[in-house]
Specification:
Elements: E1 45-53, E2 58-66, E3 72-79, E4 89-90, E5 94-96, E6 103-110, E7 114-123, E8 126-129, E9 133-136, E10 143-150, E11 157-164, E12 170-177, E13 186-187, E14 191-194, E15 200-206, E16 216-224, E17 227-230, E18 234-236, E19 243-255, E20 258-268, E21 274-281, E22 290-291, E23 295-298, E24 304-313, E25 318-327, E26 332-334, E27 338-341, E28 344-350, H1 352-355, E29 365-366, E30 372-373, H2 378-389, E31 393-399, H3 405-418, E32 424-428, H4 458-471, E33 475-478, H5 491-507, H6 517-523, H7 536-551
Parallel strand pairs: 28-31, 28-32, 32-33
Antiparallel strand pairs: 1-2, 2-6, 3-4, 3-5, 3-7, 7-8, 7-9, 10-11, 11-15, 12-13, 12-14, 12-16, 16-17, 16-18, 19-20, 20-24, 21-22, 21-23, 21-25, 25-26, 25-27, 29-30
Helix pairs in contact: 2-7, 3-4, 4-5
C-alpha cells in the first residue's frame, strides 16, 4: 500500500502546524456491467389473489400489479371454464402510475355464481397474465387453485394446489396423466381439507414411476356437500437435473491493475453426465456477466466440488457470481447469486494526527503482536481489516499537517478525484480549528443552513465535506476530535465540535458510530507524545478504535 509521507509538523508559537483528523468513509456506488443506475424497465409483474365475497350477490376479484417502471393498464378476465376456452369477459381497465412496487387492483363482479378469473396487466414492454383462479358465490362450494409442480426429478414430482372448503367438510385430490385435456387421468389419494373459509395448501408427491422427458398434466380437485371444483390444468416434464450450491469465494487478491479470486461451488450430477461453470460480474442480478470455461464434473450421484480461479477482475469493485451446471439431457440449474468485494478502499483525511506526526515507531516496522506499525494508524487499520474480512484492503493516508476543517473542504474534491476507486472516507478535523491564537472557529452547534452564525462555522465546513463525499457516490465516516492537554487549544471548543459530530451523524444518517478519540486520550494521556499528537502506541489505539467502529454489528 502506498502511503503519503511528508515531514512531521511542528506547532510554532504563532500558528498551528499539527492537527487531528476527522475520518470519513465513502461507500463506492456499485456499477453494473450495463452502466449502473436504475433497474431496466420490464413488463409488469402480475399476481392473481383469491376472490373475496361481496355483501350481496357477488365477489370481488383481487390481484396485485407491479408496473416495473412504466405507466400500466390492469384489468380482470373471467369466464365459466378454467381455460377460458368458451370465451371470457373483461372488466374496465385501471390505470396504474409508473412505479416499482406492487399495487392492489380489484373489481366487484355481481350476478355470476361461480367461474374462473385472472388478473392481467400491460405496459409498453408487454402484456402479462396472472394465474387463473376459481370463485364461487354459492355458499359452501369449494375453491380449487392448481399450483406449479415442485421438486421435479427424472422420475418424480410434487403436485401442489390450494383448496378453500368454504365452511363445509371438504376433500381434495389431484388428477394427473399424459392427456393435455385430462379426459383420462389417474387420481391421487383423497385428503381431508377441513371446514375453514380460507385457502389451505394441498400437495402430493408422485412416486418415482414417471418417465424422464415425458410431459405430464395435472390439476387439483375438491368436493363437499355443496358441489365440486377443479383447478387449472398445468404441466411438468421430469428431468434428471443437476443440484448446485454456490459457496463462498476465496483467495481474493489485489495486484493492481487487476484482482483475483477463486470461485467455489458444489454440483451433484444426479447420475447424468454434467458440465459446470461460473457466471460473474458487477451486476447484482447477473443480467450481464462473464463466465468461466465449462468443465466436466462426471455423472456421480453425490456432490462434487467445483473451483475456478480468475485473475482479471477490477480491484475495489463488488462482484457477484453463481455456479451453473447442465447435463446431457438438457437440464440446467443455477445456484444462488453470491457476492464478494475485490478489495475495499479507504481514504483517511484530516490534519497532522491523521498524517501520523510524532509516530515514534519506524515505518513498516512490526510490533510484538505482529502488526505493522509506523506511519500513523492507517497501515495498522489496513492490516486489521484485511485479517478480519479475509480479503485485501487499502487505507490511504491523505492527512496534511496544519489543516483546519476549512482547509479540508478546499482539498476534498481533489482528494476524491485522485482516489476514484475509494469506497469510504474517514474524516477527522477540529484540533487546529480550536487554537486560541487564531481565534477558534465557531462550532455552529445547533444551527442549520441559513441560520445566523452557521456560515463559516465548523459545522458548515464539515457538512459541505460530507455532502461532497456523498455526491461522489461514496460513504463518509466521522471520528470525534481527540482530547489534547495543550493549553493553547480550547477544550471547550473541541467538546462543542464533538457535539456537532453527533448532529452530523444524525442529519446525514451515517451508520457507523464515531470512534471516540476524545475519551480515549483523555483517559490515556501517556499515549500522547506532546499533548496533541499520539505516539506509536497512541496510533495503534486509534487503529483499534477505528477497527471497532467499522466492524461493529
Amino acid at each position: 500500500m502506498n502511503r503519503l509521507r511528508t515531514s512531521k509538523g511542528i506547532r510554532s508559537k504563532t500558528g498551528p502546524c499539527l492537527f487531528p483528523v476527522f475520518l470519513v468513509f465513502l461507500a463506492l456506488t456499485l456499477v453494473s456491467c450495463g452502466g449502473g443506475g436504475e433497474e431496466p424497465n420490464s413488463p409488469p409483474s402480475v399476481t392473481t389473489l383469491d376472490a373475496s365475497p361481496l355483501a350481496v350477490d357477488g365477489v370481488t376479484l383481487n390481484g396485485t400489479v407491479n408496473p416495473n417502471g412504466h405507466e400500466t393498464t390492469a384489468w380482470f378476465k373471467w369466464g365459466t371454464d378454467p381455460n377460458f376456452s368458451n370465451g371470457f369477459f373483461s372488466s374496465q381497465p385501471q390505470i396504474l402510475a409508473a412505479g416499482r412496487t406492487a399495487q392492489n387492483v380489484s373489481f366487484p363482479l355481481r350476478g355470476q355464481s361461480s367461474g374462473y378469473f385472472q388478473a392481467v396487466a400491460s405496459n409498453v414492454e408487454g402484456e402479462v397474465e396472472g394465474e387463473i383462479k376459481s370463485f364461487s358465490t354459492t355458499p359452501g362450494v369449494p375453491g380449487a387453485t392448481t399450483g406449479q409442480a415442485t421438486d421435479v426429478t427424472g422420475t418424480g414430482a410434487t403436485l401442489n394446489g390450494t383448496v378453500n372448503p368454504n365452511g363445509l367438510s371438504t376433500n381434495a385430490w389431484f388428477e394427473w396423466g399424459e392427456d393435455p385435456e385430462l379426459a383420462s387421468f389417474s387420481t391421487t389419494a383423497v385428503q381431508p381439507m377441513g371446514v375453514g373459509t380460507t385457502g389451505v395448501p394441498v400437495e402430493f408427491r408422485l412416486p418415482d414411476i414417471l418417465s424422464e422427458g415425458t410431459t405430464y398434466y395435472f390439476r387439483v380437485a375438491a368436493e363437499n356437500a355443496a358441489g365440486s371444483a377443479k383447478g387449472t390444468i398445468l404441466s411438468f416434464t421430469p428431468r434428471f437435473l443437476p443440484t448446485v450450491t454456490t459457496e463462498s469465494a476465496t483467495d481474493i487478491t489485489v495486484t493492481e491493475p487487476s484482482a483475483g479470486v477463486t470461485f467455489n461451488g458444489l454440483v451433484n450430477p444426479n447420475g447424468v453426465s454434467t458440465d459446470a461453470w461460473f457466471r460473474y460480474g458487477t451486476d447484482p442480478s447477473l443480467s450481464s456477466y462473464d463466465e468461466t470455461d465449462h468443465e466436466l464434473v462426471g455423472s456421480a450421484t453425490e456432490n462434487q466440488p467445483v473451483s475456478v480461479s480468475v485473475n482479471t477482475l477490477e480491484p475495489w469493485k463488488t462482484y457477484y457470481f453463481q455456479v451453473v451446471a447442465e447435463n446431457t439431457v438438457g437440464g440446467s440449474q443455477e445456484g444462488t447469486i453470491s457476492s464478494f468485494p475485490a478489495g475495499d478502499y479507504y481514504v483517511a483525511i484530516g490534519d497532522s494526527i491523521t498524517f501520523g506526526s510524532h509516530d515514534d515507531y519506524p515505518p513498516d516496522d512490526t510490533s510484538s503482536d505482529g502488526r505493522n506499525t509506523g506511519g500513523g494508524y492507517e497501515p495498522i487499520l489496513n492490516d486489521l481489516l484485511t485479517a478480519e474480512k479475509g480479503y485485501p484492503h487499502t487505507v490511504e493516508n491523505e492527512g496534511f499537517s496544519g489543516e483546519t476543517a476549512a482547509d479540508g473542504l478546499a482539498r476534498i474534491q481533489g482528494i476524491i478525484d485522485s482516489h476514484p476507486d475509494a469506497r469510504y472516507f474517514l474524516v477527522m478535523y477540529g484540533t487546529n480549528d480550536a487554537f486560541l491564537d487564531l481565534p477558534p472557529v465557531p462550532s455552529g452547534l445547533g444551527l442549520n443552513p441559513g441560520d445566523p452564525g452557521y456560515s463559516g462555522s465548523y459545522k458548515d465546513y464539515m457538512q459541505r465535506m460530507i455532502s461532497a463525499i456523498i455526491a461522489a457516490g461514496k460513504t463518509p465516516y466521522l471520528a470525534k476530535v481527540p482530547y489534547t492537554s495543550d493549553p493553547l487549544i480550547s477544550d471547550t471548543y473541541i467538546r462543542n465540535y464533538n457535539f456537532v459530530i453527533d448532529e452530523l451523524i444524525f442529519d446525514n444518517e451515517i451508520l457507523v458510530i464515531p470512534p471516540d478519540f476524545y475519551s480515549h486520550f483523555q483517559s490515556h494521556p501517556g499515549e500522547l507524545d506532546d499533548g496533541i499528537h499520539p505516539n506509536g502506541i497512541g496510533y495503534q489505539s486509534m487503529a483499534d478504535r477505528w477497527f471497532d467502529a467499522l466492524t461493529a454489528p
